[in-house]
């Protein structure tokens, strides 16, 4: 599922996060992740850019499972509590509004105890055929 070379989900990306996202209910997605030492910014704490990339990817998977090709136009992230190296977290995302061109998505990352670590609100722009061609994405489903 997804794309083999993707930084977040690609199983063939040696430098990637290798997160497996799966469908949850009709429109939601879920995944799990373990922060490793090479994901840290401040000592012992997962880098906020890694956290943002995970939220962005969960958001993108919502549109992927909807069967449209979309890119992130806006991603607003709240970092609520540090994600510690060695800590497992649970990721969730679901759509909140769907229009002809834009899918709005809420995503969150929680500890295994359910405590909120980070959350995001994003606007995904559905690409026209011309935009897909210009971005080299015309052959995607
Ligand atoms: C699932 C498997 C794995 C898949 C890979 C995971 C990927 C993860 C997701 C990503 O990270 S994608 C990469 C990061 N995103 C980008 O690189 C997108 C870069 N931005 C663009 O390509 C264009 O800005 C975009 C396609 C989003 C919009 O260009 P358009 O030419 O379609 O917009 P247009 O100029 O026609 O404007 C249409 C409306 O949208 C508005 N708009 C455009 N860009 C916007 C923006 N960025 N934010 C908010 N609004 C925006 C614009 O003001 C306007 O509003 P109005 O209709 O009210 O006039």
From TrEMBL:
Enzyme Commission identifier(s): 3.1.2.2
Subcellular location: Cell projection, Ruffle membrane; Cytoplasm; Membrane
Protein's UniProt keywords contain Thylakoid: no
Domain Thioesterase: 44-116
UniProt main location, coarse: membrane
InterPro entries hit by this protein: HotDog_dom_sf, THEM4/THEM5_acyl-CoA_thioest, Thioestr_dom
Entry's family note: Belongs to the THEM4/THEM5 thioesterase family.
Protein name: Acyl-coenzyme A thioesterase THEM4
Taxon lineage: Bacteria, Bacillati, Bacillota, Bacilli, Bacillales
